[in-house]
Amino acid sequence: MIVVVWAFLFTGIFFIFTGIVGVLRLPDFYCRLHAVGKCDTLGVGLMLTGLAIHEGFTLVSLKVIAIIIFIGLANPTATHALARAAMKSGMKPWTRGDDPAC
Amino acid sequence: MIVFECMATAIGLSMVFSLIRVLRGPTPLDRLTGLGLIGTKTVVLLVLLGSIAGRQDMFVDIAMAYALVSFIGVLSLADYYDTLGARS
Question: Within a 13 Å sphere around the CA of A90, how many CA atoms are in the beta-carbon half?
């Protein structure tokens, strides 16, 4: 059981750090948003799943599962709202022609 | 359990890296993205701290409330920039 918890926790922290690398290194706002929207949701969901398994079947694990479902709904919604706000305020998406060094 | 302390440290480190994007972001929306990242990581950090301290029943409720508040904050600021962009 404890091995399953550790596997979930380490996979989750791997995805979280992948998202961080994407946020720090990618060239454009939309690219960064792409890294945040998927990696962060998956990493946080995996880590919370591991913690819910560690709790066992109690009210606390039920609340943790409720948090997982809420984050799975809320994080893509926030990402979509941010991308929509950027598009409305006239931010142009990055293309390869803008930066010859890449 | 020592693994939980290591995980809490790693999440704190990733929050510091998100803070770099908040400080350096060229546009306000970049900074808002970094704030959203820190908000979702804080939820995991609170549940982890509850497991470390042995008070899961208390910390899970705090994490739930924090997730709601962080989501509403990001959404309202995104809506503000949405109307600002539509007006200009």
Answer: 5
